[in-house]
Design goal:
- By secondary structure, this protein is an alpha+beta fold.
- The chain is built from 9 helices and 4 strands, in the order ααβααβααβααβα.
- The chain has helices at 6-19, 44-57, 67-71, 75-84, 99-105, 115-122, 137-145, 158-162, 177-187; strands spanning 58-65, 88-95, 127-135, 171-173.
- It has a 4-stranded antiparallel beta sheet with strand order 2-3-1-4, with helices on both faces.
- Bound molecules: guanosine-5'-diphosphate.
Length: 200
């Protein structure tokens, strides 16, 4: 068998890194920053600098594709919207929330008049929960989602495209770093989250 040249080694390693990548990587992602192809960042020190910068700017957020959007067959379109915006899906599952699960997740709203309806809606069918990672992921996801009331959401946003009203509004997204951490932990344990390649 022919000896491996440096070029063929690089090609094979790049392919291996691609296979090890999370479910989807948005086209807006920078391959070096995302740690998927650090081959051309040849010096260890620059790789470390990139990893440091990545840690400072990359966020994780929880997304839920709600029962109305799942029932409309919009899962694929919504996931593509995340990917096209440069967000990476690093964990995902299709689940059917029971009453306790929905009440616990929305506990912050338990005194609100719409709480019972909200729980009934969220348990009415399956949902897709996922963890999105990327630069400014929390705000970026909120921007993609649009306003809470789908009838007021800006044209082109997920809620304008797939939501119906203020309750049946297609998606949930964490509203800040603390809630993101709590909400991700509500649905996922550490072993269910795809670690970045450089951390393996
Ligand atoms: P979000 O962060 O944009 O999802 O909005 P909130 O955290 O304020 O509300 C949580 C969810 O409760 C919303 O996404 C809606 O599904 C629902 N919701 C919010 N406000 C109302 C309301 O006034 N009436 C009803 N029926 N549902 C609401």
């Amino acid at each position: 068998m022919a000896a491996w040249s440096r070029k063929s080694y690089r090609t094979a390693r790049a392919a291996l890194v691609r296979v090890a990548s999370p479910v989807c990587r948005g086209e807006g992602g920078d391959p070096v920053k995302w740690g998927h192809a650090p081959i051309h960042a040849s010096k260890q020190s620059s790789t470390r600098a990139v990893a440091e910068e990545r840690k400072q700017t990359v966020e994780r957020t929880l997304s839920i594709i709600k029962p109305d959007a799942v029932a409309k067959g919009a899962i694929g379109d919504i996931l593509k919207t995340f990917c096209d915006a440069g967000l990476t899906i690093i964990a995902m599952k299709l689940i059917h929330l029971d009453e306790d699960g929905a009440r616990g997740f929305y506990a912050v709203h338990k005194e609100r008049p719409f709480f019972t309806d909200l729980v009934a809606f969220m348990t009415s069918g399956p949902v897709v929960v996922s963890v999105l990672e990327g630069e400014g992921a929390i705000a970026k996801n909120r921007e993609l989602m649009g306003a809470t009331d789908s009838t007021q959401a800006e044209a082109g946003t997920i809620r304008a495209r797939f939501g119906t009203d203020i309750e049946r509004n297609a998606v949930h997204g964490s509203d800040g770093p603390d809630t993101a951490r709590i909400e991700i932990g509500y649905f996922f344990n550490a072993s269910e989250i795809q670690a970045p390649v450089e951390a393996l």
